Amino acid sequence: MEIKRLDLGHLYVTARPWPVHGYVILHEQLGVVLVDSGCGGPGEVLRYYKVVNRTVADALDDHGLAPSDVTMVINTHLHFDHCGQNPAFAHAPLMVQHTEHERVLRERDEVTDWIEASGMTFELVDGSIELAPDLRIIGSPGHTSGHQSVVATTGLGTELFIGDAAYTRRIWDSSGIGSLPEGQAADIDAWRGTLGALKALAPERVHFCHDG
Question: What CATH superfamily is the domain 2-207?
């Protein structure tokens, strides 16, 4: 198994730019697994966050890959900066938690309308699922009610792809103590429980979507 980080541009949540990363897992059994596809969606959202986008095709090309090589997409959640370039992967299953899909339909906003208009079809997951003996999806609610993370077992040990379960390593290291950036947790109690459960996995490496 090999892991490649994708540079998908940046956005502004505060006065400072936040990087946007996706990850490719080159898996012997599953093929090319993409974790989060980067920014996309309605123009008003992209303008609000001052998105400086990079296409997922260009990011994949950095590693000698193309969108057509991707065999599975795992969206940690359905915010515009994590599922925004899903339309490039209409040929691949888009894995998302059932709870997250229900949240998007229930809360309805511009991104919901854009997802529906794009014709995305999701493969819905309930809780934890083993994709292969060394790769699984686990529920990690808190940032959103249906957030999920990916757990890989590599030669290093346990590696986590945590989406927005913690925006940055500083938040991860803080264990949820102290002030949090706006939007880090829709449900702070669930989020703290998730953070503790993820840390209990004793990962050798944590892959962040909004940290350098």
Answer: Ribonuclease Z/Hydroxyacylglutathione hydrolase-like (3.60.15.10)
